[in-house]
Structure formats: C-alpha cells, structure tokens
Amino acid sequence: MTTINREATPEGDNIAGPNQLHSDLHDIWGNPRGLKALTIVNHTTLGLRFMVTGMAFFLLGGLLAMLVRTQLALPDQDFMSPDIYSQVTTMHGTVMMFLFAIPMLEGLAIYMIPKMIGARDLVCPRLTSLGYWCYLFGGIILSFSLILEMAPNSGWFMYTPLSGSEYSPGLGSDFWLLGITFVEISALSAGVELVVSILRTRTQGMALHKMPLFAWYILAMALMIVVGFPPLILGSILLELERAVGMPFFEVTGGGDPILWQHLFWLFGHPEVYIIFLPAAGIVSTLIPVFAGRPIVGYGWVVFAITVTGFISFGLWVHHMFTVGIPQLAQAFFSAASMLVAVPTAIQVFVWLATLWLGKPKMKLPMLWIMGFLIIFVCGGLTGVMLALVPFNWQVHDTHFVVAHMHYVLVGGMFFPLIAGLYYWLPLFSGRMPSETLGKWGFWLTFLGFNGTFLIMHWTGLLGMPRRVYSYETGMGWDIFNLLSSMSSFIMSAGIAMVLLDFALHFRFGKPAKHNPWNADTLEWANSMPPSAYNFVSLPKVDTRHPLWDDPDLPRTMAEGQHSLAVATHGRREMWGTDPLTGKVREIIHLPGNSWWPLFAAMALAVVCLSLLTRLYPLAGIAVVVAGLFLLRWSWENGAHPKAAPDAEVAPGDPPLHSRTMDGPGLWAMSITLLANGSFFLSYLFGWFYLWTVSPEWRMPETSPLSLVGLILAGVALTAGVGILEKLVRGLRQGKDAGLAVGMYCISALGFVQVAITLWVLLSADLAVTETSHDAIIMVGLAYALLHGGLGAVLTLLQGLRVGYGYVGAHAPFEPAVVAQWWRYNLVTFWILVGTLAVLPRVIGS
Q: Could you tell me the sign of the dihedral formed by the alpha carbons of 130, 57, 418, 554, in that order?
C-alpha cells in the first residue's frame, strides 16, 4: 500500500498512476487463498459459488428425473419400490425448485448486478456470504436424506395431512421442513441484498429510468422473494411444531385445517413461478437488443409489464386449489386473475418480437437458446390459460397434463434463457469463447428431447394418467407414449451433458475472447475478462441506457482511473451511495471486508437444524444462543468501528461516508428485512382468522386466557421505549448526542420489562397448546413478540456500549436510526397482537 493521500483526485488525472492504483485496489479487495478463502465476501466469488453449487444440485435433480422416467418407461415396472419412488419424485421437485432454480438465478444476479449498475460489490457482502453458507448447508442436509433412504415422500408441496406425523412418521418430512427453511434464509438474504444494492448503489447519474432492464427484472424478483417466501417459512414452522410437539395447526380434530397449509404454501408457490420466470425474461430482454443490434422497443412497456406481473402473481395462489372445495365466487375471481397475468407476459413477448423485427438479428449461439425459449414458453403459456378455466382444471388436475404444463413453463421459461445467458456471459467469466459446434449440438438435443418428453405427457394426461403413480397396468393406452417420453428424456439428458461439457472445456480450450465480443451496451462488459475483485478501477457517470454504445472508449478510461473514486490509499472498500430515483450521489459507502463470522453463524444454524432433526432440543437451544452471539459479534464490526472504516476521512468535495449520515444502506436493508418480517406476520394473522372462520372444530374459550392488563402494561413499556428512542434519534439528526448512552440503557431496560411481562402473561395463561389450535396459535404469536422484544432490547444495549467506545454519536449517528426502525415495527406488531389475540375475542366472542 502506498502512503495515504487524501487529496482530491481530479477526473481524468490519476495521481498514483493506473498500475499503482490497480495494485492498491487489489491489496484492499483481493481474495485470500487457502483456508482463508472461506472468509471471502466478494460478490463475484460468491455468485460463482452459488451457480456452481446450483449446477451440482441440478445434476442431482436430473439424475432423479432419469430414475423416474426409467420407472415409467414400461408398465408393471419394479425398478423402484413405491416408497423409494415417492422419495425420488418428491426430491426431484424439491431439488429443482428450491436448490437449483432460485439459487442459480440469485447467483447469476449476485454476480452480474454490481457490474451492470457500475458498483464494486453488493451493499451487504457479509449477508451474501451468510446466504451462501446457509444454502450450502441446508441443501446438504436435505440431500443427505436420500443417502439414508429417509427422504420426504409426500410430494414437493408437502400437503397435509399426508406430510403429518400420522401418515409420515419418519424423519422425511422433518428433513424437508428444516432443510427448506434453512435454504429460504439464504434466499431472503439475497433478496434483501439485491433490492438495496439496486436502489442505492447504482453509479452516478444512472437514474431509475436509465437502469438496465435486467436490473429491473432482478429488483422485481428480489422484492417478490422478500414478500413471497415468509408464508412458506411460517407454514414450515407450524408443521414442524405439529410434528415435533403435537400442536394441531392442520388437524381438524384439534381445531386446525389441512387446507391452511395449501394456502400458505401457494401464497409462496405461485409467486415463485414468476420469481423464476422474471430473471430469465430479464436475460431475454438483455440479449435480444444486443443480437438485434438496436435498443429494445418499448422500454417503458417492459418495466410496466414487470411491475404488473409482480403484483398480479400474488393474487393467483388459489389457481392451484380449484378442486379443494372453495366457493364459486372465489373460483371465478382467481380464474380471471390467472388469465389476466397473461397480458403483461404477452406485452414482453411482443416487445421481443418487435425488437427482432426492427433490428438485424445475428443468430449466434445464445440467440439459438432464446428462440427455443420463445417457442416453448408460448406453448406453456397457452396450456396455462387452459388450466385457468375451472371446468378444464377439474378434469386434468393431478394428471400428467399438469406435470407437462409445469415443465413447459419452468424449464422453457427458465432453463433455456439461463443457458442463453450463461453462453452470453461466459467470455466475461473466463475470457474465452464457447464452442459453437458443441453448443449447437447441445441445443438441438435438448430442444428435441424436451419436447419429445413433455409434449407427449400432455396426451397421457388427457388420457387420464395420474401424476405421482409409480406404475401402471398394460392395456390402458399409456404404454407407447410413456416409452417415447422416457426415450426422449435421455436424449434431452445427452444434450444437457453436451452443454455442460462445453462449459467445462472452454475454460481451457476456448478461443480467447476479444473485449466486449458481442458488442453489448451494458457496463458489465467494461470489466476486464475475467473481472477483478473490485470490478471497476473508477466509477463513471452514466446518463444513458446504453453506455458502451454511446461511449465505446468508456472501458479504457475507467481502467485508467479517469473517473470517480480512483483513490485506494485510505484502505477502505468503497463505492457510491446514490439516490434511488435520480442516481445523484449521496454518500460514499464503505463495505466490510472478508470475515469468518458468516461461516460461523451458518455452521451454528446448521447445528440447530440437525439438533431439531434428532430431537436434541437442549443442544438446539445452545446452538441458537451461539448463532446469536456470532451474529452480534459480526454486527460489532460495523459503522465507525476501526475494522469497518480504518480511515474515516474523505477527499475534499466528496460526500461523507455512509456511517456518518442518517440514511445509509443499512437503514434500507432494515426496511426491506422488516418488509419480509411483515409478510410473515400478516401470514400469521391470516392463519388465525382463517381457522377462526373456516375450521369446523375451532374451539375458542368463552373468556380469553390472556391477561389483558399484563399485555397493556407490556405495551406501555414498549411504547415508552420507542418514545425515548425517537427523541434521541431526533437529537442525533440535529447533531446532539448528550445523554445518548444513558438513554440507550434506559430504552434497553424498558425492552426487557416488556419481555418479562409478556413472558409472565404467556406462562400464566395455562395454554393447552397440544389440544387446540387456538391456544397453539396464541403461543406462537406471543413467542413472536418475545423474540422481537428481546432482540430489540439486546440491540439497544449494544448501542449504549458502542456509544461508550466512540462508535456511535453525533459524529456517527447512523446506527440508532436503524435500531429505531426495529422498535417501531415491534411497537406496531405488538399492539396488533394485543388487539387480535386478547381484545377482539372479548368483543366478538367465541
């Protein structure tokens, strides 16, 4: 490292020189080797780890699919027993949906988004690292159940009561519930990370309406993950509590309802279809303009379609429940909504076709996969409209027709664009070009094999073949079609194997790629190939949607340090923090470096998962505490801590560091996290009112078992704490920090008072949590309040300590504002719980 030079570096005049600047940036951002490689938090490395791990799980899921097609190739097969077949089919769907599709697309987004928006990394890099380790450990735990022959066998959607302890007494369902919940922590982490990074770290001048379309698609996907995943997390927690402890959330005799699981699952499940589709469509919208040689037609219409798709997707979940006996009015509403979602999808298809029509398309290898996508996805959309019609849905529900439709939408809508995108960005990954010959062979074998497999399955479904049956008798008219379908599946597998072989070989034998080999327009191609750990030597001002088309010399000037933040001698990992709408620079964001804490925290959470599986509850409790300590220790190295900002000074004329402001990215990250938390809480309220109004055996006592006086006293303590905290935050905004530490300690004490009173109310209620779902849901609600109250008290206590260490104060006022958001959320949800669980039953009655 050279001597620190805090003088402003004029644009176009790099004082240290490009070579020295590259060396300094590498010293700060470079990845360690050996065992310390486990500490890497860089988005490029973590994005690759997500994708490589996702591809490994894809191979596992593909192998399971081949076992299924082998079993169904001929009638009366005994290749697998019924139980093993059920395990294989359940794990095939689970692996492909949860361990491949979403993590793979998130990994691509983690890798590409900072490069596309002109940033050096994602805004919370250690959160990305935690997400990866949770994904890896959760996937390993879930996959290990196959080796033990204890895999779940109730279908990848785990419908109750089939997945309950009565019909699935082993550990199979527990592997699914705990493993998937673990994996979804990863997905939520990436969702929060991507939303905040896209909104707050775009390079200078990149207003929202000038953002690459791929970033729009990823922003919608990430927000949908944040809102859509918590309902399934809640459902998984409730079902695991029912299996492990006996709380009757889904048992009719205890006041529960198995249909509640379907609602919670599909509140996640149908948005997930579009969570998978939108990033793939983003790849299509990125590639078509490049190979058509012109800007996309109707940029605004595409953004409109993305937004509408995101909203409508949350109104479709009953689309999967037309046969469970819902009212006809609800069937009509959700049928209309299911057809309405075809409108924004059609807008995108017409925009793509118009761009190709008005341009001069070049049929390179990535475009071959795009054309395959257009054909397959349109066919899948047509069968989707058919399934939206309630009478037709009744006829083909739970047949191979639904399986075929699902694969046309998900494989055609996700896998084909994904391969197109990987071929397109391979030169960026490796600096080498793929093989046109192997790639084309891989495409045609995959395309023909896919259609041969699943087009035929539409016919077997119309002939009445149910899905999830492990065998069938000869003479039913399904024999030849199943044989052709199975043969085609092996052709498709050969095509995919050829594509993967091409990917592997090109890193060594591929032709070296010239810079920006496709003549693309977006900033990721301003990187070196392969890219450095810091992406860009200097960060440019961008005021166009096509920066590389409008300024082909931009990669050179960026590499020479002729733009902003071309100083590295301060020892910080830094990039711009910009306004979410205009792209105007607000602050310099300084990022934390490599750390063991995300790995340690994920390992502790893995111990929690394994302990719950083996019913070692004391060990699980200890592991929870250990994980909490790791996370709190991680949070200590933040803000004004010397390891987070070794040099807090900035060059004259530059904005301040984000930790010295009141609106840094951590505030936005907390807001998005609380949005996910709110989705979880609303799902809980939905479950409470659903069982209250629908469950035939719902039993509510004449008088509430909860002490209303105790809950009000707890709420008063919480309200007083929020009031004091708000006053302190207002003082910090005015540059005043007198009495800050004492105030934080007082607030923390009020938080612990709220927790103590709430705990007394819970213990004195004498709830029969294993007898009635009413009492079990009350227990879950109060446990939710206790968790949030306790965490708020601990965080505020740490703030008081950080004031004493000089990490928080008028000079660094950021963190109390973040903690205040948590307290506000806790205040609102606590009083809603009081009204819902204690006041409303007293007013309405049982």
A: positive
DSSP H helices, 734-808, are 740-764, 773-805
Tokens of 125: 């890099």
CA nearest neighbour of 779 among 788, 769, 789, 787:
769
pLDDT, tens digit, for every residue of 449-502?
Answer: 999 999 999 999 999 999 889 999 998 889 999 999 999 999 999 999 999 999
Helix 436-462 / helix 365-388 crossing angle, nearest 10 deg: 10
The pLDDT of residue 10: 39
Which class for 151: exposed (0-12), middle (13-18), buried (19 or more C-beta within 10 A)?
buried
* Integer CA distances (angstroms), 627 to 39, 180, 632, 794, in order: 17, 19, 9, 14
616-673 pLDDT per residue, tens? 999 999 999 999 999 999 999 888 888 887 677 888 888 999 999 998 899 999 999 9
As a whole number of angstroms, the distance between CA 432 and CA 193 comes to 30
Neighbours of 37 (CB within 10 A): 11
Nearest in space to 216 (alpha carbons), one of 128, 312, 310: 310
| Dist CA 196 CA 672 (whole Å) | 8
> How many Å is the Cα radius of gyration of the chain?
27
Q: Are 269 and 99 in contact (CB under 8 A)?
A: no
Residues 6+ apart with CB under 8 A from 405: 380, 383, 384, 387, 458
In sequence order, the β-bridge partners of residue 588 are 576, 657
Distances (CA, A) of 367 to 79, 355, 374, 507, 647: 40, 13, 10, 21, 48
Angle at 550 between CA 545 and CA 556, to 5 degrees: 110
CA angle 110, 116, 117 (to 5 degrees): 100
